[in-house]
Amino acid sequence: MDVKDFYYDLPQELIAQDPLEDRSSSRLLVLDKDTGEIEHRVFRDILSYLREGDCLVINDTKVIPARLIGSKEGTDAKIEVLLLKRRENDIWETLVKPGKKAKPGTVISFGDGLLKGTVIDVVEEGNRLIQFSYEGIFEEILDQLGQMPLPPYITHQLQDKNRYQTVYAKHEGSAAAPTAGLHFTKELLKQIEDMGVKIAHVTLHVGLGTFRPVKVDNVLDHHMHSEFYIVDEEEAEKINSTKRDGGRVICVGTTSCRTLESATGEDGILRAGSGWTEIFIYPGYKFKILDCLITNFHLPESTLVMLVSALAGREHVLAAYEEAIKERYRFFSFGDAMFIM
């Protein structure tokens, strides 16, 4: 399977740089995965496509302000540190730019010494393990000094940190937002519940591997990044009972989808628990529990375009993307949405 099979040409000006004022006013492209038929709607029209007895699965992870700008102690050399995952207590795996200035033993100071980090090791892909020292509570200091780690294709400054969080974000730990959830407002979620649709929460802490390009020609040679997920007993039962009763399981975002498909056995039963997933979903994959997907438009040749192609077929997906470009939809994290049904 060639990575070029998942390429499409996107005009630069269609990459959304800012979130819309009203989250639910984004556009919604509805794709029938069996026929390839397309409809153009507004996101809040999602209500027309949900049915009593369905279950909407949302990822309640919270993005941490993981981008820190500091300087090498004793010099003015600027160093940018991106927190990727907490290894233990105050030791984090990080991405450091420029890496050559961050050899083991290097001390980096942030916020005039309010926070200090010592590089203790270089690990796979050149990432650095950094041990942080500070007085007080790490999360509070991070909130004070850190910036939201926006994807590299967003060049505008984010005015309001909360716009890169879902309205239901709860458990801190992500380096990127589960962006399909950004379209929901509290009012819209209440309307959905009032219709008799269950809402189940899962947690998957999104890593920056989400944006990592596929660098191999053969898709099957690509190694997926790992991400930590949690499925509680009560939420698993909500989802399993939906399937038993003939309702549809509708995942909000590829992160919810990857969580469910990782934690579901071959018997189609979702197991509660937690762990790391490296699941890679591409055409040929048989979905075990997911029926429908709400998602944004993804980067060309990305693992996420492959995932949606596994669900709706590559030809249908690329035709829908072509139509979205023609209709001037907004793409990527702050862009418009698709409902694959």
Secondary-structure blueprint:
Elements: E1 27-31, E2 38-42, E3 55-59, E4 61-63, E5 67-72, E6 78-88, E7 91-97, E8 107-110, E9 115-122, E10 128-134, H1 138-145, E11 171-174, H2 186-194, E12 198-204, E13 227-231, H3 233-244, E14 249-252, H4 253-263, E15 273-277, E16 292-296, H5 303-312, H6 314-326, E17 337-340
Parallel strand pairs: 1-17, 3-12, 3-14, 4-11, 14-16
Antiparallel strand pairs: 1-2, 5-6, 5-8, 6-7, 7-10, 8-9, 9-10, 12-13, 13-15, 16-17
Description:
- The protein has helices at residues 138-145, 186-194, 233-244, 253-263, 303-312, 314-326; strands at residues 27-31, 38-42, 55-59, 61-63, 67-72, 78-88, 91-97, 107-110, 115-122, 128-134, 171-174, 198-204, 227-231, 249-252, 273-277, 292-296, 337-340.
- It has 341 residues and is an alpha/beta fold.
- The strands form 3 sheets. The protein has a 9-stranded mixed beta sheet.
- Helix 5 crosses helix 6 (314-326).
- 39% of the residues are buried.
